[in-house]
């Protein structure tokens, strides 16, 4: 995909997020955090990652671990667009019998690599996958998306220490820095302040980007680092990005999407897509 295609793909992902959230009805959905990673997910699945939906268990496929599992609607939306399962399945989100639950449950045939949701565990999982690739002489890459609030978890930093020690240059962690978590602003709950310096101090190759700039995301993800270091990307994002009603509004961390708000949000995305 070229940059224009990737921008259109990110809009499709956002529309799919809204469709699934609306279809969930009174069960509600994590909307804000899914919208904040939509551009990152679009570049990963539209340009960067190696995979084949017709052969989802290919040993040489790149892996994505969504450590901030509550943002799963962005992942499901991309997987549907890439034909891991019919797009109509999104309308079954959170319904009885559906494999599309409120947090990812491992289903590799459908493109869901790991069960996540307990915050802080995804980096440890990813390190294990990346380390196994090294030991088996496989050349696939492991990507992990982590929330900035999730970085309050001590397991994140234990994992970061080991990844650098093991020289896992086949591992990329993307921090979705939208500055909000479930109960408020990060700086008020536990201020981690400068994540760049923190990851650098753990001997990671660290880069800060605009997490909604498609070109910047693509360029950063495709940088070939040969310094034997894992890569940390601090992606500055806006929670709820793409729909003004949701942007920086923490009420949409987890909420019910009623018809009126769904239609307003879709109209705004339709207008954006025409630009």
What do these coordinates show?
There is one protein chain. Helices cover 39% and strands 12% of the residues. It is of the alpha/beta class. It has a single domain (3-274), classed as Rossmann fold, CATH 3.40.50.970. The strands form 2 sheets. The chain has a 5-stranded parallel beta sheet, with helices on both faces. A two-stranded antiparallel ribbon has the order 4-5. α6 links the parallel β2 (142-147) and β3. The longest helix has 21 residues, at 3-23.
Topology at a glance:
Blueprint: H1 3-23, H2 32-36, H3 38-48, E1 63-66, H4 72-81, H5 122-135, E2 142-147, H6 154-165, E3 171-177, E4 180-181, E5 184-185, H7 186-189, H8 195-201, E6 205-210, H9 214-221, E7 231-236, H10 259-274
Parallel strand pairs: 1-2, 2-3, 3-7, 6-7
Antiparallel strand pairs: 4-5
Helix pairs in contact: 1-3, 1-4, 1-10, 3-4, 3-9, 5-6
């Amino acid at each position: 995909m070229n940059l224009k295609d990737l921008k259109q793909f990110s809009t499709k992902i956002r529309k799919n997020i809204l469709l699934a959230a609306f279809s969930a009805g009174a069960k509600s959905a994590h909307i804000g955090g899914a919208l904040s990673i939509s551009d990152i997910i679009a570049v990963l699945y539209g340009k960067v990652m190696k995979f084949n939906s017709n052969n989802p268990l290919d040993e040489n496929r790149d892996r994505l671990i969504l450590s901030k599992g509550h943002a799963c609607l962005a992942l499901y939306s991309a997987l549907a667009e890439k034909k891991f399962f019919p797009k109509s399945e999104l309308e079954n989100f959170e319904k009885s019998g559906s494999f599309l639950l409120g947090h990812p449950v491992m289903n590799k045939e459908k493109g869901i690599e790991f069960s996540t949701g307990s915050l802080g565990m995804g980096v440890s999982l990813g390190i294990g996958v990346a380390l196994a690739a090294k030991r088996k002489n496989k050349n696939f890459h492991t990507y992990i998306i982590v929330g900035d609030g999730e970085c309050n978890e001590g397991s994140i930093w234990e994992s970061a220490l080991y990844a650098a020690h093991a020289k896992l240059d086949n591992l990329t962690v993307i921090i979705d820095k939208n500055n909000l978590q479930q109960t408020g602003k990060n700086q008020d709950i536990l201020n981690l302040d400068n994540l760049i310096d923190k990851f650098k101090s753990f001997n990671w190759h660290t880069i800060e980007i605009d997490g909604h700039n498609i070109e910047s995301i693509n360029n950063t993800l495709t940088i070939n680092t040969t310094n034997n270091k894992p890569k940390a990307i601090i992606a500055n994002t806006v929670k709820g990005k793409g729909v003004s009603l949701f942007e920086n509004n923490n009420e949409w961390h987890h909420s019910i999407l009623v018809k009126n708000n769904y239609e307003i949000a879709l109209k705004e995305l339709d207008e954006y897509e025409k630009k």
